Backbone:
């Protein structure tokens, strides 16, 4: 077993070989195909009454010369379609659907029609500044948009085998590689990272070295130049947002060379897209210093700057990380896209290092913030994922204008909904990692999966009771006798794990957080059981926002109180931490386990302040999974509850 | 005694007759003359190294044709000088100073030189848009600026008897009365209120009815027209801030007719300046409906929207009120000017109604937020007055960029420092109110005061031990035998009040919160003692930000924990509410009483979250007066402390 910082040759498996069939996840994953993709497709066409118009398809049609008009919407509006196409590809991988495929191909036609002869693709600049390209990296989002189109093209190619879209996006990537190696762009870096990880994906899909090298150049340049700060003084600069403020280098992680960064700074989505590419490149180039930076950044996030829900980004202003232990609950930003990006980073770190701990964090983000981002009907979304909501206080034109107490149909800036869709549709990539002679089971999600051990095709069946019970049965069937290992991640929350094979219970070796199960012959079966009771969680006392409070977590799921179960005035409730929590199976939405606690409700008569301590009456508190909050009548919600 | 909603004929006394000589207040009040006025005068001339330039005097010189150049700074920059002049007048009332007087007269010369032939005065429009006037009430602040010049002129006239400045500002007021009664301004209202209360002051100083009528028109128009929303479509509109957002009527209290308003909305300073004028006019016109609105707004503020420190304004965005019980401590706005405005409103409500309760609130604001706004050396200032500070979290380009952990030398937008100066310099107006046959003692502040009872000149001497002990001795000496009453406010925090006259202890009648003490003959003396121990304060459980927390208050003073006394990590401290608080006389800054409590410090090893409850060790907590916070090394501060 390789015990240096890098694991060798770990790979994601093709999505078409990963069939998730899980009581918990089916409800969400199948929504992608049945609801989210059709709904989001209608939004791209501006067909959803009451939702802000996207203008995405209209912009591309205008850029393609198929319609008259001007650009409308955000500068990165094209990415709505790019992420939709990526999600559509993933959906087709698990569920062939000729109609969806035909629609997607029509959209690919549109994208290719909007592409310029030199490979450039961006409806904003093509319509508003024809002939201009890469003149405002700070605000223009061209490389970010390019990255999403490249990711979509790679996904389409990997799922369908068709290379028309891929080849078109290679031409765009070739243009980028050319332009960004000219002298006048020698120190240029993307304003919003994403192209780096996309170029790496393109490299892995095509084997073309220059894409990897360009990604590496971009991250190596970052923080070593003042390009983004001085760009607005260049003759070629085209203003987009007319922002009078000077560029804040931390905002775009451009404040220090990436290998010297130790704290997660600035815009959280940008940061985690960057770190994702750093992880990919560290692994691919065996770059120890880069990997060390990734590890430091991971530690900083998870030990000091992450909400208990896997949310990141504490400030609505600039959608950014702030400082250690600054985790306000009611004004949290915790953008859905940021938790997706955190999961993406952790998936890569898991692949690069072979360490299980990264998947603890990915799992936390996916089961909580990512899932909370979408309504149970797949038709409304959270952009921001607060941990405490009092609906009346989420007022427009205040500090908390970014927090919405109910999911929105769509957003003017609609990065999150299609990002959630592509994440749910590619969930299989989080479940398994393929090694040379090993398979890593990263998430205990039920399904049937095809992989290889030492070159021999194997089928892996997982039957998991998560997140309601700590039990999973994993069977490996090989086409012919094989010798290898099954590595099963032991979650950080697993109490008293017990492994049972055909010969009864056994104690496996542990390696980097994985239980090492030998696979021999054609059939291996193992049961993995562990305690996963609902537990009280305490925050580090440096987190002022959680002072005197506790939260409830069961396995990967964080719980919350909602007004629908507990009446209004959640701040007047106290939880008795000396009494046991009680789990109620099937008591909640989608048959979820709810959790009851003993508590008090404070009584108060009078005004705002008093020298008299409030009286209280006993009451029961009912906690529900955070991922399902806001699916009933709108009301208050809180994750952290004041202790008695 | 009149028991309808209005008291009759209550008046403020001339400041020159009010000599404050108080162990607690002298330190601040005398700073106005010795430090604040000279320091602020230097800032007006841009002479303070490291402070943002004011440009105030330079702008006026350019407007007066005495210098070349263009306007710099905020559109309301002139008001810095106006408030300085008002404060200078008040300072001269208590301490004649030929040099200060000469300087002030020179400044009045400058103001008059910048005034236009038609009476108009505003350096921003005179320099940048010559000939234009009242073309952007929403943003231009011309009427706000006019109001401050009028207040300064009235103050100067009342203190010095000289009417040159007053007459000049009457010409400005005459212009306003004329313009705002033309058909095209028939429904126009000020964007930032202030002119209304200033016109009322001008009416009281001159007896000129039309000023009162104009003020009444302005408040009667408010909320009945869409003038501010549609102003930017008028041909005369001159854009100032190029704000792409539509006007938010609540921001300027223009969302409903004033008599129908029941909740304090929008920009807190604007709101309280408006309510101040409403109180004046309600009293002057005996307008029952208007008084009822003032009473409702007062109740809404003090019962639902006010910090325990008398701070108001919960959101940094728009510096505004938000909703009931929304009182975040770490992101509070609680602008110094807003608490000044609250005290101004309460002073007027006290005068109009004769009710003592309004002075409970004025006292709270003055002793806490207003006083905290200025450093003990008079040379640095808070604009925003948070109730919890962790310095590292007060980062630029985040949600909390408005919160500063240390007082600033000056501000680009420097409304607060000169506003604090004029408030401290006119503190006497808060101490006493003159009735026909009665004197109201509103604040127990030591000093010697000249007044009249039934026309007979009297001298009132107050010797008060506040805020450290609940004891005051009040003596009235009349020039000749007199018959009347001394009304002494019994503070809301007074425990077991005892009054002692020459014949021993007695129980006075109570009227609207005042103890009624008969004054007969030429000498009356009364001692007023009450318990005023440090007490724990609980917040209404609807205030989520204070859930599980308590604060400490002693008499009018709210206390806080500072890192300087309690080490870093204040969120890890717990107060034991079952143990008595202990007062330590003379233990703090300016010989203040400090308060000790028994508590715990949580111990924690590990990361961000844990299933293990933290251990703790006993510790002592040391509380200091909030008004003196931030006068030592910078560090954490909190008013609300988590209970054990």
Residues:
């Amino acid at each position: 077993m390789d015990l240096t910082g890098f694991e060798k040759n770990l790979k994601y498996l093709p999505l078409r070989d990963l069939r998730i069939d899980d009581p918990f996840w089916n409800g969400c994953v199948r929504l992608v195909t049945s609801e989210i993709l059709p709904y989001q497709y209608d939004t791209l066409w501006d067909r959803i009454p009451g939702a802000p118009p996207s203008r995405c398809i209209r912009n591309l049609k205008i850029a393609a010369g198929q319609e008259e008009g001007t650009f409308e919407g955000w500068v990165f509006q094209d990415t709505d379609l790019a992420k939709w196409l990526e999600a559509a590809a993933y959906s087709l991988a698990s569920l062939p659907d000729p109609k969806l495929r035909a629609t997607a191909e029509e959209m690919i036609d549109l994208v290719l029609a909007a592409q310029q002869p030199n490979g450039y693709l961006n409806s904003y600049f093509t319509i508003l500044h024809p002939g201009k390209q890469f003149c405002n990296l700070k605000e223009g989002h061209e490389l970010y948009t390019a990255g999403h189109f490249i990711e979509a093209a790679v996904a389409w190619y990997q799922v369908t085998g068709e290379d028309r879209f891929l080849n078109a996006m290679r031409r765009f990537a070739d243009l980028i590689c050319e332009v960004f190696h000219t002298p006048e762009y020698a120190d240029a870096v993307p304003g919003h990272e994403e192209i780096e990880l996309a170029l790496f994906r393109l490299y892995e899909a095509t084997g073309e070295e220059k894409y990897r090298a360009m990604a590496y150049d971009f991250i190596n340049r970052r923080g070593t130049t003042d390009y983004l700060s001085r760009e607005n003084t260049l003759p070629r600069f085209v203003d987009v947002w007319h922002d009078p403020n000077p560029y804040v280098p931390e905002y775009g992680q451009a404040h220090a060379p990436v290998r010297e960064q130790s704290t997660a700074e600035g815009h959280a989505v940008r940061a985690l897209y960057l770190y994702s590419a750093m992880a990919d490149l560290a692994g691919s180039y065996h770059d120890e210093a880069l990997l060390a930076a990734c590890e430091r950044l991971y530690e900083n996030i998870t030990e000091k700057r992450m909400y208990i829900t896997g949310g990141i980004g504490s400030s609505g202003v600039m959608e950014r990380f702030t400082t250690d232990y600054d985790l306000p609950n009611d004004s949290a930003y915790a953008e859905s896209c940021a938790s997706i990006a955190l999961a993406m980073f952790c998936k890569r770190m898991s692949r690069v290092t072979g360490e299980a701990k990264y998947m603890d964090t990915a799992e936390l983000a996916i089961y909580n913030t990512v899932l909370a981002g979408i309504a149970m009907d797949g038709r409304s979304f959270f952009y921001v994922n607060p941990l405490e909501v009092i609906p009346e206080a989420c007022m427009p034109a205040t500090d908390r204008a970014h927090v919405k107490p109910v999911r929105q149909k769509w957003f003017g800036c609609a990065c999150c909904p299609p990002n959630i869709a592509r994440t749910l549709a590619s969930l299989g990539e989080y479940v398994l990692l393929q090694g040379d002679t090993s398979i890593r089971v990263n998430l205990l999600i039920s399904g049937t999966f095809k992989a290889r051990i030492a070159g021999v095709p194997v089928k892996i069946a997982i039957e998991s009771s998560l997140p309601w019970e700590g039990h999973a049965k994993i069977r490996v069937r090989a086409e012919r006798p094989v010798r290898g290992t099954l590595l099963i991640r032991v979650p950080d929350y697993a109490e008293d794990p017990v492994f049972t094979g055909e010969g009864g219970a056994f104690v496996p070796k542990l390696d980097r957080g994985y239980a090492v199960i030998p696979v021999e012959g054609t059939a291996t079966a193992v049961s993995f059981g562990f305690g996963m009771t609902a537990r009280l969680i305490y925050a580090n006392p440096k987190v002022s926002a959680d002072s005197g409070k506790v939260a409830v977590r069961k396995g990967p799921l964080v719980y919350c109180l909602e007004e629908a179960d507990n009446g209004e005035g959640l701040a007047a409730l106290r939880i008795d931490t000396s009494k046991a929590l009680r789990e109620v199976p099937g008591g909640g939405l989608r048959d979820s386990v709810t959790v009851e606690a003993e508590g008090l409700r404070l009584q108060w008569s009078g005004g705002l302040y008093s020298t008299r301590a409030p009286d209280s009456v006993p009451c029961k508190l009912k906690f529900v999974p955070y991922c399902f909050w806001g699916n009933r009548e709108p009301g208050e919600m809180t994750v952290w509850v004041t202790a008695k």
Notes: Residues 535-642 of chain A form one domain. The longest strand of chain A covers residues 471-489. Chain A touches chain B through 67 residues (CB under 8 Å). The two ends of chain A are 49 Å apart (CA to CA).
